[in-house]
Design goal:
This is Helix-turn-helix transcriptional regulator. GO terms for molecular function: DNA binding. Keywords: DNA-binding, Transcription, Transcription regulation. By secondary structure, the chain is of the alpha+beta class. The protein contains ten helices and eight strands. α6 packs across α7.
Protein backbone atom coordinates (compact mmCIF):
# COMPACT_ATOMS: atom_id res chain seq x y z
CA UNK A 1 0.00 0.00 0.00
CA UNK A 2 1.29 3.43 -0.90
CA UNK A 3 1.99 5.75 2.02
CA UNK A 4 2.78 9.41 2.54
CA UNK A 5 5.39 8.42 5.12
CA UNK A 6 4.13 11.28 7.29
CA UNK A 7 3.29 10.93 10.99
CA UNK A 8 0.47 13.52 10.87
CA UNK A 9 -2.91 11.99 11.68
CA UNK A 10 -4.42 13.49 8.51
CA UNK A 11 -1.91 11.84 6.23
CA UNK A 12 -2.12 8.56 8.16
CA UNK A 13 -5.89 8.63 7.60
CA UNK A 14 -5.31 9.25 3.90
CA UNK A 15 -2.95 6.27 3.83
CA UNK A 16 -6.01 4.16 4.74
CA UNK A 17 -8.89 5.82 2.89
CA UNK A 18 -7.26 8.21 0.43
CA UNK A 19 -7.06 5.93 -2.61
CA UNK A 20 -9.44 6.72 -5.47
CA UNK A 21 -12.90 5.18 -4.88
CA UNK A 22 -12.20 4.29 -1.24
CA UNK A 23 -14.54 6.92 0.23
CA UNK A 24 -17.38 6.24 -2.24
CA UNK A 25 -17.21 2.58 -1.15
CA UNK A 26 -17.42 3.70 2.48
CA UNK A 27 -20.33 5.98 1.58
CA UNK A 28 -22.29 3.06 0.14
CA UNK A 29 -21.81 1.08 3.37
CA UNK A 30 -22.99 3.81 5.75
CA UNK A 31 -26.60 2.60 5.51
CA UNK A 32 -25.72 -1.02 6.19
CA UNK A 33 -24.22 -4.18 4.65
CA UNK A 34 -24.01 -4.47 0.86
CA UNK A 35 -23.19 -7.27 -1.52
CA UNK A 36 -20.42 -6.87 -4.07
CA UNK A 37 -23.05 -6.65 -6.81
CA UNK A 38 -24.87 -3.88 -4.90
CA UNK A 39 -21.67 -1.87 -4.68
CA UNK A 40 -20.90 -2.42 -8.35
CA UNK A 41 -24.36 -1.16 -9.34
CA UNK A 42 -24.18 1.87 -7.04
CA UNK A 43 -20.72 2.88 -8.36
CA UNK A 44 -21.06 2.65 -12.16
CA UNK A 45 -17.76 4.41 -12.79
CA UNK A 46 -15.62 1.87 -10.94
CA UNK A 47 -14.02 -1.16 -12.58
CA UNK A 48 -14.37 -4.60 -11.04
CA UNK A 49 -10.61 -4.75 -10.43
CA UNK A 50 -10.56 -1.43 -8.59
CA UNK A 51 -13.63 -2.31 -6.52
CA UNK A 52 -12.05 -5.60 -5.50
CA UNK A 53 -8.79 -3.84 -4.61
CA UNK A 54 -10.51 -1.14 -2.54
CA UNK A 55 -12.57 -3.70 -0.62
CA UNK A 56 -9.47 -5.77 0.07
CA UNK A 57 -7.49 -2.73 1.25
CA UNK A 58 -10.30 -1.40 3.42
CA UNK A 59 -10.79 -4.84 4.96
CA UNK A 60 -7.10 -5.23 5.71
CA UNK A 61 -7.07 -1.73 7.25
CA UNK A 62 -9.90 -2.65 9.62
CA UNK A 63 -12.39 -0.19 8.07
CA UNK A 64 -14.58 -2.84 6.41
CA UNK A 65 -15.60 -6.33 7.48
CA UNK A 66 -16.63 -9.16 5.17
CA UNK A 67 -19.11 -11.76 6.36
CA UNK A 68 -21.47 -14.43 5.13
CA UNK A 69 -25.19 -14.09 5.73
CA UNK A 70 -27.08 -17.15 6.86
CA UNK A 71 -30.21 -18.61 5.22
CA UNK A 72 -32.36 -17.57 3.48
CA UNK A 73 -30.02 -14.87 2.10
CA UNK A 74 -26.87 -17.03 1.86
CA UNK A 75 -24.83 -14.14 0.48
CA UNK A 76 -21.50 -12.52 1.25
CA UNK A 77 -21.75 -8.87 2.30
CA UNK A 78 -19.40 -6.07 3.20
CA UNK A 79 -20.09 -3.76 6.12
CA UNK A 80 -18.29 -1.08 8.08
CA UNK A 81 -16.57 -2.00 11.31
CA UNK A 82 -17.36 0.11 14.37
CA UNK A 83 -14.19 2.08 13.60
CA UNK A 84 -15.16 2.48 9.94
CA UNK A 85 -18.62 3.75 10.93
CA UNK A 86 -16.93 6.68 12.70
CA UNK A 87 -16.24 8.10 9.24
CA UNK A 88 -19.90 9.08 8.83
CA UNK A 89 -19.73 12.60 10.35
CA UNK A 90 -16.56 13.24 8.35
CA UNK A 91 -18.27 12.29 5.08
CA UNK A 92 -21.36 14.32 5.95
CA UNK A 93 -19.21 17.36 6.65
CA UNK A 94 -17.46 16.88 3.30
CA UNK A 95 -20.89 16.83 1.69
CA UNK A 96 -21.85 20.09 3.42
CA UNK A 97 -18.56 21.68 2.37
CA UNK A 98 -19.17 20.77 -1.29
CA UNK A 99 -22.91 21.52 -1.28
CA UNK A 100 -22.58 24.60 -3.52
CA UNK A 101 -20.11 23.25 -6.06
CA UNK A 102 -21.56 22.80 -9.58
CA UNK A 103 -23.43 19.56 -10.18
CA UNK A 104 -25.38 18.21 -13.15
CA UNK A 105 -27.65 15.40 -12.00
CA UNK A 106 -28.47 14.55 -15.60
CA UNK A 107 -24.87 13.62 -16.38
CA UNK A 108 -23.48 12.34 -13.08
CA UNK A 109 -24.15 9.22 -11.02
CA UNK A 110 -26.26 9.61 -7.89
CA UNK A 111 -26.94 6.49 -5.84
CA UNK A 112 -29.66 5.66 -3.34
CA UNK A 113 -27.11 6.03 -0.55
CA UNK A 114 -26.06 9.42 -1.94
CA UNK A 115 -29.67 10.60 -1.79
CA UNK A 116 -30.14 9.32 1.78
CA UNK A 117 -26.92 10.97 2.96
CA UNK A 118 -27.86 14.23 1.24
CA UNK A 119 -30.90 14.27 3.52
CA UNK A 120 -28.77 13.70 6.60
CA UNK A 121 -26.50 16.51 5.40
CA UNK A 122 -29.23 19.10 4.82
CA UNK A 123 -31.80 18.35 7.54
CA UNK A 124 -32.88 21.58 9.25
CA UNK A 125 -33.85 20.70 12.82
CA UNK A 126 -35.20 24.19 13.52
CA UNK A 127 -37.64 24.08 10.62
CA UNK A 128 -38.68 20.55 11.56
CA UNK A 129 -39.18 21.42 15.22
CA UNK A 130 -42.88 20.44 15.36
CA UNK A 131 -43.02 18.12 12.36
CA UNK A 132 -43.81 14.43 12.68
CA UNK A 133 -43.62 12.47 9.43
CA UNK A 134 -42.97 8.86 8.51
CA UNK A 135 -42.68 7.75 4.89
CA UNK A 136 -41.06 5.25 2.61
CA UNK A 137 -38.95 6.11 -0.41
CA UNK A 138 -39.19 3.13 -2.76
CA UNK A 139 -36.36 3.28 -5.27
CA UNK A 140 -36.20 0.23 -7.50
CA UNK A 141 -35.83 -2.74 -5.16
CA UNK A 142 -34.68 -0.60 -2.24
CA UNK A 143 -36.82 0.96 0.47
CA UNK A 144 -35.62 3.86 2.60
CA UNK A 145 -37.55 4.33 5.84
CA UNK A 146 -37.50 8.05 6.71
CA UNK A 147 -38.80 9.57 9.95
CA UNK A 148 -38.95 13.14 11.20
CA UNK A 149 -39.92 13.48 14.84
CA UNK A 150 -39.83 16.97 16.34
CA UNK A 151 -36.38 18.05 15.27
CA UNK A 152 -34.89 14.58 14.87
CA UNK A 153 -34.33 12.86 11.53
CA UNK A 154 -33.62 9.19 10.91
CA UNK A 155 -33.30 7.35 7.62
CA UNK A 156 -32.37 3.73 7.10
CA UNK A 157 -32.40 1.15 4.35
CA UNK A 158 -34.90 -1.60 5.09
CA UNK A 159 -33.43 -5.08 4.66
CA UNK A 160 -34.51 -6.83 1.49
CA UNK A 161 -36.71 -9.81 2.24
CA UNK A 162 -38.41 -12.52 0.27
CA UNK A 163 -41.50 -11.95 2.42
CA UNK A 164 -44.36 -9.92 1.01
CA UNK A 165 -44.49 -6.29 2.18
CA UNK A 166 -47.13 -5.40 4.73
CA UNK A 167 -50.54 -4.40 3.36
CA UNK A 168 -51.09 -0.77 2.39
CA UNK A 169 -53.06 0.03 5.53
CA UNK A 170 -50.03 -0.87 7.68
CA UNK A 171 -47.50 1.10 5.65
CA UNK A 172 -46.48 4.76 5.87
CA UNK A 173 -47.05 6.94 2.79
CA UNK A 174 -45.00 5.54 -0.08
CA UNK A 175 -42.98 7.61 -2.55
CA UNK A 176 -41.90 5.73 -5.69
CA UNK A 177 -39.22 7.53 -7.66
CA UNK A 178 -35.48 7.63 -8.38
CA UNK A 179 -32.65 9.38 -6.51
CA UNK A 180 -32.14 12.17 -9.04
CA UNK A 181 -35.82 13.11 -9.19
CA UNK A 182 -36.11 13.07 -5.41
CA UNK A 183 -33.01 15.24 -5.05
CA UNK A 184 -34.42 17.71 -7.58
CA UNK A 185 -37.68 17.93 -5.60
CA UNK A 186 -36.12 18.29 -2.16
CA UNK A 187 -32.98 20.27 -2.93
CA UNK A 188 -33.78 22.16 -6.13
CA UNK A 189 -37.49 22.93 -5.83
CA UNK A 190 -38.86 20.71 -8.61
CA UNK A 191 -42.66 20.63 -8.09
CA UNK A 192 -43.80 17.09 -7.25
CA UNK A 193 -46.77 17.50 -9.60
CA UNK A 194 -44.38 18.18 -12.49
CA UNK A 195 -42.33 15.07 -11.67
CA UNK A 196 -45.53 13.03 -11.45
CA UNK A 197 -46.71 14.34 -14.83
CA UNK A 198 -43.38 13.21 -16.29
CA UNK A 199 -43.91 9.72 -14.88
CA UNK A 200 -40.91 10.05 -12.56
CA UNK A 201 -42.85 10.13 -9.28
CA UNK A 202 -45.75 8.24 -7.74
CA UNK A 203 -47.13 9.05 -4.30
CA UNK A 204 -49.23 6.54 -2.40
CA UNK A 205 -51.00 8.43 0.35
CA UNK A 206 -51.55 12.13 0.95
CA UNK A 207 -50.09 14.30 -1.86
CA UNK A 208 -49.06 16.84 0.80
CA UNK A 209 -46.60 14.53 2.53
CA UNK A 210 -43.68 15.07 0.15
CA UNK A 211 -43.82 18.92 0.13
CA UNK A 212 -44.10 18.85 3.93
CA UNK A 213 -41.08 16.57 4.08
CA UNK A 214 -39.06 18.69 1.63
CA UNK A 215 -39.54 21.85 3.70
CA UNK A 216 -37.47 20.26 6.49
CA UNK A 217 -34.28 20.26 4.38
CA UNK A 218 -32.16 23.23 3.44
CA UNK A 219 -28.82 23.60 1.72
CA UNK A 220 -26.17 25.23 3.92
CA UNK A 221 -25.51 28.90 3.28
CA UNK A 222 -22.68 29.48 0.77
CA UNK A 223 -19.50 31.10 2.09
CA UNK A 224 -19.25 34.85 1.63
CA UNK A 225 -15.87 34.57 -0.08
CA UNK A 226 -14.13 31.80 -1.98
CA UNK A 227 -17.39 30.24 -3.16
CA UNK A 228 -16.79 28.27 -6.40
Amino acid sequence: MRTYGDACGITRALDLIGERWALPVVRELLLGPRRYSDLREALPGISTNILGSRLKELTEAGVVHRRRLGPPAAATVYELTAWGAQLEPILLQLGRWAAHTPVDLREQAFSVSSFALSLRTTFDADTAGEVELHLWFVIGEEILDARIQRGDFQIQRLPQSSDSPPPSRDRPPRIDSDPKTLAAIIHAGLPPAEAADQGALRVEGSPDVLPAFARCFKLPEPPVEGHP
